[in-house]
Amino acid sequence: MAVSRVQTSSILQGFPKSRSLLAGNTAFMPSSYQSIQTVTVGSGGASSVTFSSIPSTYNHLQIRVLSLGTTVTDGVLMEFNGDTASNYYTHYLRGNGSAASATSNASTQYPIWTVGASASPTASVIDILDYANTNKYKTTRSLTGYDANGTGNIYLISGLWQSTAAISSIKLTCSLSQYSTFALYGIKG
Amino acid sequence: MAAGATYESIATTTLSSTASSVTLSSIPSTYTDLRLVATYGSNTTGTLSYIRFNGDTGVNYSFTYLVGNGSAASSSRNTDVAQIGGVVNSFGSSSIPSMAQYDIMSYAGSTYKTVLTQGSNDINGSGSVERGVGLWRNTAAINSITIFDVNSRLYKIGSTFTLWGIKAA
């Protein structure tokens, strides 16, 4: 049986590191995947998290979340630019450990997921495509779920915000416990 | 609002001989999340993809998943098991790889570890697509990941396993 192991010395091999932009050094090329802002909930908990002043210089956004709630049934709702009108639509496919199901929802906010209990955090990756394009409504894709060793759900969700405005703020509302982390990333094309 | 480079390849392994497991070790704790992507062919029929952390072979894992097999969608769960995953099935074709992706969130944080999984395999007549979530009931920072098949079936030569680090601001 062959086993491959990667040691510390091999980590980051091949990545050019430039201390200077003088001629002869490899040019520095900024990554196309950049961290914009991160929010970590403190010991007092939080009822919402907001990303504001989002620059319009990326093509897409991604939010990566590890969330813990006060109760397992709490759901996170997402809204854009303070819009609380009935402009949000979602479809999701769910597996609850015993059956697959599908449903749709029209609402004043996106229902994103069910927050796991404190010992079984919910993980989510939310992609917001063409968020700054003023010629399109906004489409999102989410993979989210938690497992609590006997209970749990996995969701694959698509969403629509029926607005052509560029997204400049994102608010996520839920009863959030300490250590919940929300990280916003920008992706350049 | 600060922005900076954030998505880096930590390690890549391409098999030069068949293997029933691959271990990526000495993972630094300086990132926020990890992403492991595997594209693998099977040297025999039915090689699956499971992961374990830090060499933990105890029944400290559980896994809830959703799968479509081309004719039906279903969901199931494994509790108190010794690994996460195992749904993606490489049907033994030497030229059609399966793909498995694992998003390991806050891998160095102080909570239990939650993993989002994605698996895909299609061989023009059969296949499956899976999405799942796994839990490792341990608060230790993850410093190694082993990807393997519990029945010791083999990943073929040319299978690749890439680990990415994602760093939040």
Task: Summarize this structure briefly.
With 189 residues, chain A is mostly beta strands. Chain A is built from no helices and 13 strands.
Identify the notable features of this structure and list them briefly.
heterodimer; A: 189 residues; mainly beta; four-stranded antiparallel β-sheet; 0% helix; globular; disordered N terminus; B: 169 residues; eight-stranded antiparallel β-sheet
Structure description:
The complex is a heterodimer of chains A (189) and B (169). With 189 residues, chain A is an all-beta fold. Helices cover 0% and strands 50% of the residues of chain A. In chain A, the strands form 2 sheets. An 8-stranded antiparallel sheet of chain A has the order 2-13-4-9-10-11-6-7, with no helix packed on it. Chain B has strands spanning 4-5, 7-14, 21-24, 33-40, 50-53, 61-68, 73-81, 84-85, 98-104, 113-122, 127-136, 145-148, 160-166. The mean pLDDT of chain B is 88. The radius of gyration of chain B is 16 Å and the shape is globular.
Task: Describe the secondary-structure layout.
The complex is a heterodimer of chains A (189) and B (169).
Chain A: E1 3-6, E2 33-40, E3 46-51, E4 60-67, E5 75-80, E6 88-95, E7 100-107, E8 110-114, E9 122-129, E10 138-147, E11 152-161, E12 170-176, E13 181-187
Antiparallel strand pairs in A: 2-13, 3-12, 4-9, 4-13, 5-8, 5-12, 6-7, 6-11, 9-10, 10-11
Chain B: E1 4-5, E2 7-14, E3 21-24, E4 33-40, E5 50-53, E6 61-68, E7 73-81, E8 84-85, E9 98-104, E10 113-122, E11 127-136, E12 145-148, E13 160-166
Antiparallel strand pairs in B: 2-13, 3-12, 4-9, 4-13, 5-8, 5-12, 6-7, 6-11, 9-10, 10-11
Strand order of the main beta sheet of chain A, please? 2-13-4-9-10-11-6-7
Low-confidence stretches of chain A: 1-22
- Put simply, the count of helices of chain B is 0
Structural class of chain B: mainly beta
